[in-house]
């Protein structure tokens, strides 16, 4: 699969051949779904908490005699069935993360890249370096490239000026190559890869 390389000013800079093993797979929704669920579960805080009967503040005095009242037998008013009592089997802090095989995670990333390639929503840039950190200038360059909703994947490091200029633009995400992930690829319309990012991906999957 061959794609044209462009500069930030939307000028041609040759072409690049993308690996069919990474960008040419037939996308599978089930694998992508599993990976997105895996990512979302890991992001959940899991800090929800309610008080059990042993944690509720209140008297432990037995408020009604054991026999003869005509009612049920109770130790104190902290029981779950009373107003102000503890919650029975309530949520406690925990991790929502679950495991997913490393091979499935790697395959999901390939399928996400292939999804964008098949839809013609990949743009290859020579690099993403900027002389100024002005958002206005960066927005003008993105308009030339037709980028309104996009994920930009830079090389090992994101250029400081580019990162500062792009971070205030709505619906534009910028990540280094180490941060590339299925969820962020799918949530944005366009995927913008630098030459360095493409090379790094090929080394990652074929190395």
TrEMBL record:
Pfam families: Ribosomal_L4. Keywords: Ribonucleoprotein, Ribosomal protein, RNA-binding, rRNA-binding. Residues 63-96 are annotated as: Disordered. InterPro entries: Ribosomal_uL4 (IPR002136), Ribosomal_uL4-like (IPR013005), Ribosomal_uL4_dom_sf (IPR023574). It comes from the Bacteria. GO terms for cellular component: ribonucleoprotein complex; ribosome. GO terms for biological process: translation. Gene3D superfamilies: 3.40.1370.10. One of its GO terms (molecular function) is rRNA binding. One of the primary rRNA binding proteins, this protein initially binds near the 5'-end of the 23S rRNA. It is important during the early stages of 50S assembly. It makes multiple contacts with different domains of the 23S rRNA in the assembled 50S subunit and ribosome. Forms part of the polypeptide exit tunnel. Belongs to the universal ribosomal protein uL4 family. Part of the 50S ribosomal subunit. This is Large ribosomal subunit protein uL4.
